[in-house]
Amino acid sequence: MKIRIALLGFLMPLAAAGADFPSRPLTIVVPFGAGGTPNLVARLLAEGLAERIGQPVVVQNKPGASGVIAAQNVMHAPADGYTILLADNGLLAINPSLNKTLPYSPTGTFAPLTQIVSQPFLLYVRSDLGIGSVDALVSSARRAPGKLNYGSVGNGSPHHLCASIFASRTGTQLTHIPFKSVADIVQAMMGKEIDLVCTSSVGARPLTESGRARALAIATPARSPAQPDAPTFGEAGISPPILVGATIGLLVRSETPRDIVEKLGADLAAVARSPSLSKKIEELGMDVVADGPAAYARVIQDELKRYADMVGTAGVTAN
């Protein structure tokens, strides 16, 4: 009887771990600077989640080291669900394929809550360079190896991988310049410091709306209805075609009680699928994908394999 009572006393706190969760503010840690798609997504989610759970949700930007700074910030926080990592596939799938000494494991250190969005990438070039097609870009790059440069949000980011694979498959040499955010890249392109960038249509919107950049190709299997004039890389003669985009989701420390993981995942997915928020996200050129912890775990596993194969085949390095 004493053993049974003691066991019940041990299990009851576990069963009730998430009963009063959350009872104080939550924090979403973003591995990029202010501006850009991840920051926009985080702030939209924070507003919707705060309204749903009745607690403030704070967004903290922790850019640098290809997302490692943000990942470590969450790793060192208590495993109680109050500190959430917003991550893209650069941090969770591409970076692990390039760097075998990361301080975190994408599948062991963190517990997935839910994917939020996916978005295709396009290759943009500064309009004043007079480059109107992928063929023209390849010719220009071959005439002056290393002269043309491209921006990314860090080694191992989708932006880096997309441009690196392009250089590898076209036999060209492009110079990589990392930044802390897409907003910083946009400013650099407007200042004619950067020539190219692989990013989403929302990230490049200030460039395209001002006429400072044009899209040469899109990294999808078929043309996008939202970007009908942009050929696929396959149509532009790149073989095999480049298929790179961004997936963005949320995670907590893997030791977080399972009931809190499930509750947070359900709340975040519901917020992302709400008519008001999903409309805002879709207007930014992104697709809402909010299916909870199990589905996001499968996405991470699939992308780990796909990007490892892509990195190995293209011979992409971390620099």
From TrEMBL:
Alphabetic keyword roster: Receptor, Signal
Pfam family, one: TctC
Signal peptide: 1-18
Keyword Signal attributed: yes
Family: Belongs to the UPF0065 (bug) family.
Protein name per UniProt: Tripartite tricarboxylate transporter family receptor
Organism encoding this protein: Pigmentiphaga humi
